[in-house]
Amino acid sequence: MERVCRAGLTFYRNEAWSELRHGIFTRRGGVSERPWHSLNLGASIGDDSEAVRENHARVYRAADVDGGRAVSAWLIHSVDTLVVTGNGGRKGKLERADAIITDQPDTPLVMRFADCVPLLYYDRSKRVIGLAHAGWRGTVNGMAANAVWMMQKTYDCRAADIEVVIGPAISRRNYPVGEEVACQAGAYFGEGADVIWRDPADGSPYLDLWRANQRDLQRCGVTKIKILDICTYDNTEDFYSHRAENGATGRFGVVMSL
After folding, report:
1. What pTM does this model have?
2. Quick one: pLDDT at residue 93?
3. Read out DSSP for 44-57?
4. What domains lie within the chain, and their CATH numbers?
5. For the chain, which terminal residue's Cβ has fewer other Cβ atoms within 10 angstroms, N or C?
6. Model confidence over 31-56: pLDDT tens digits?
7. Strand pairing of 95-96 and 99-102?
């Protein structure tokens, strides 16, 4: 993964996907004031709406995509996937889902994050892309694998052809969870799976979101996986973190377009 500075913004992209317009954007280069400073793309967390619109415009300009055709989703921590078949741009109407897939050119997929895992999918043989959001609920219910299944069902993709980038998220060492989360992780991944680490001092569980989503992808046949292992909790100068900033923060953006 390479770090790019363009049009006043800083973002990461997969150099192997040179034919895609895409980026995992840091929080730098926007116009939002504290506590959302500065490139906040979240429109429902109290930030000024004009600032959010300007931030979106800057992201689309830096990514060289048509913001008027952008498609996003109302994130609900599910495994639901939206299939975009045409007519890029929803005129502000968001459907409830946590993944979007498409084979339509010039149709940017856009999502927002602040500790949850960004999942970027690309099947170059079928010319299909996908973007997903996986918090702990989505992770322990198979969001990563479900997006693959939807790409297979809708576009006849093969898991072996799908490449995935797992983006910045909260790391295991900063992500203590309750026993109910550990139980759900064990039920989905199998007891003893290495997605839960327990503190030797008191046995409290910590969830490894990167490893869990990697395991989920591998179990359904995906082998081409890159992890951008930047912890959002430890790097709030670059990324928003809901936990590190006690909920008073923005959302960084991810954009993909064929």
Report:
1. 0.96
2. 60
3. SSS--HHHHHHHHH
4. 2-257 (3.60.140.10)
5. N
6. 999 999 999 999 999 999 999 999 99
7. unpaired
